[in-house]
Every structure is written in C-alpha cells, then in structure tokens.
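Translate sequence into structure tokens.
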Amino acid sequence: MSTANLQNLLVAYTATATGKDALNLGVALARTTGTHLHLVTVLPEGDAYAAVYPSDRGHVPIIQKQVRGWLEEAQNALPKDITSSIHTVSDSSEAAGLLSAAQQLDCDGIVLGGRPGGLLRRFKLGTTANTLLHSSPVPVILSPAGYENQQPLSRITSMFGPRPGAKDVISRALTAAKTHALPLRLVSLVFIDRTDPATSIDDTTTADALIDQVETFGNEQLAAQAADLVANNKASTVVATGSNVDDAVDALDWLDGELIIVGSSRLAPDNRIFLGSTASRMLRAVSVPMMIIPAGTK
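Result follows.
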C-alpha cells in the first residue's frame, strides 16, 4: 500500500469532538485521493472475538442501536462527494477492535482524532493511539485536536533523517505528490550541538545538498525524482536544524490542509509501526495532521 493508493480508510469514529476531528481529516483525505471511508465505532465486549457488523444487517444487537444512530448521523452529515459505510465492532480493546476491523474491511490506513487537552492544538495521545502507534500494520493518520479542514490536502511534508526508514518516507511522499498533483516539501531534520562550532550547519544549505541527502538516505532513483520535482517548482527543500526536535521544527511554516509523513523507529519489525522517540517528540511540536507509516513498506 502507498499513500497514492488509498482505496479504503478506516475512520475511528465516536460522537465526540475527537470523532469529529477524525471525520474531518477523513473527508480531506477522501477529497484528495478518492478513498472510501469506513466509519467504525468499537463497542466494549468481553468476548475476545471481534466481529464487524455492517450497517445493513438486520440483527444488530439492541445495545448497538444508539451507536448506530450516531454513526448514521455522522454519515448523513458527510459531503455528498464522499462515499462511505458505517460499522460497529465488538472487542474488549478499542485498539484491537480497530485493527480487526481494518483487516476485515481491507483498509489501507486508520484515521484517529486528537484528544483534547494538548497545547496549541497539538497532539495528546491516549491509550488507543499509543497502542496503534506501536503495532499497526497499516499507516496511522492522526489529526490534532480541533481539526476542522475538510478541503483537499494542500501540501505534503516529508520529514526524514539519517536513520532507517527514510527511504520509505521519501518514496511514499514522492509518489503521493506526483499522483495527486500536490506540492511537496522535503524536510531533512538535522540535530546539532549549539555549543560545539564543529557541528554547525550553514542555514543557506542549497537544494542540491538536500537532494544529495535524499540519495544518501534513500537511493539514486528517489533523488532523481526529487530533483525533477524541485526543478519544475513542484517541490521545495528545507534543512531543519536545531539542538532538538522542538528547536528544529519551530521555524517551519504550516499550511491549512498540510499532511506530514514520517517513518517508524529502527526498532519496528517489517510491516509494523513503532513510533520512535523523534517522531513522538515531533507529534508534540506540530499542529497539523501526521501520517506514521509501517517499516519496510512501499
């Protein structure tokens, strides 16, 4: 699966502000990629078996009627250009229920809303998000609390560095930008020791230098694709430097409708997400949606 091939997205929906945030982001993604939205709510269940109940089944348990009503209200409020379906899933764990539903519904990603309480509309992760960010086999796409945009994405920012996973991030971002004719911003994160002049980096680092980093952290083919987009004014390059994540991203600007793509930790097994320390700190330093992709995927 790639960002450019989103056929089905699972939107983790609850009748709360968090659910509304996820729904808004789902609409923005659907309007960008044409994906079908599966609105899913997990109901507590003592039984470890998690079965997905489509919205048209006649024997939906009574306990699900209220939840189904909320799902129907959410679906009816969606813009007319969005295709969707609604489902409930029973499981003792919300994260496990979402993973089970994503598998049964053949979803290419899971969209989660942000929990209220974070500063400056930034991210505050709950138990479900933390579990998914350390186990999901499909990308997890997080919205910050208070996310309101339903328009198509305006730009993709690829955040990468010298650690394993950079190639996957760069490849996914390039493909998505080209497929959906989106502006791309390639951001290389470089952490330096401000007290050591030997680690200083020229803030006027050229685009050619960043393309060299794309080749180093990715490969020659990806560097050629990136260089072509830059030459045709379809991509921009930034080297974000600082002594830590907050410092490095502080000077970056963010557009309404922007999406950040980051990779998993080097500790992640293939085809699984494992949120690393850098990405975790980044979540608390930015205020736009972020997609975290599994390791070793294309």
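Note: Residues 155-254 form a domain with the Rossmann fold fold (CATH 3.40.50).
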